[in-house]
Fold this protein.
Amino acid sequence: MAVKNTFCYPSAFCGHSIYAVEWIPEQTPRGIVQIVHGIAEHIGRYEEVAQFLCSHGFLVCGEDHLGHGLTVEDGKYGFFAPKNGWNMVVQDIHALLQQQRHAYPSLPYFLLGHSMGSFLVRTYLIQYPGVVSGAILSGTGQESSKLVALGKSLASLECKRLGVHGVSPLISSLSLGGYNRKFHPNRTTADWISSDPSEVDRYLSDPLCQYPITASLFRDMMGGLQWIGNPKALSKMDKHTPVYFFSGDHDPVGGMGKGVKKVVQLFRQAGCTDVTLHLYPGGRHEMFHEVNKQEVLIHLLHWLEAHV
């Protein structure tokens, strides 16, 4: 059983602290996996993933982003910062990486990002090329540049109308609500995340997942998506960093597989030399919470072992 430690460290958003967790394996670690969680969730949802990787010798760590999980002390859920929120979260991810690297300077280091976390990891690969030994991208995607620009403009307008802490029902309906409509008739509001009803119910009963997202966070995320979809930005990545993509082929965030393939193609066009894609038939957005999650974990382990 892994030893679990919790701690806090200063955020790039002045005056805020970031809640973080590390799971340390019983044996001497052979590598580190830092998990970057998605929107409207928290690092605690990756306990099973962390325990599995620890049982195979990997130290696992992760943090709750600004406006998420146990990082929230002011009640402002679903909110990064008044401005420059996206880059602040990337800086917070980097700060945790630096701490772990200082403690374990010789170990291979991997970033694993899910959904919005995958967008943040893709941003990290551009801003900090060559820093990590590899990247794992779960539930990623990339809408067209026109649609992303439209989304950013709409979110910016809603910020002006509602304020940076305002919640826009219109944006929520067009984004997360739109994903769920693809599985009509719906049993719940979150059918899109998994085909396993028990996992959907567990998500819906989690108080650290049930809050609306602010218009400013959507604005920040759309700005991030604009940048990571730009070939000029992608050219800054280290071409030799291995990248593992996996997703369900019924994941609406990844365009039912098409959007994931688009991102893979963007990476290859940028010159990346070690890119792997695994699409799971029938899988929805959260493959770590799907009916075949053990298979997903084993495939992840095999990829890690091939790149340690």
Remarks:
- The first helix runs from residue 47 to 55.
- The radius of gyration is 18 Å.
- The chain has one domain: 3-142+227-307.
